[in-house]
Amino acid sequence: MSVAFRRESDDEHLEPKFELPIPPGPNLVTPRGRALIEARVVELEAALTAASDAEAAKPIARDLRYWKTRRATAIDTAPRGDGVVGFGSRVRFALAGKERAVTLVGDDEADPPAGLLSFSAPLARALMGAEAGELVAFNGREDAIEVLEVGAAG
Question: How confident is the model at residue 132 (pLDDT cuts 50, 70, 90)?
Answer without folding.
Answer: very high
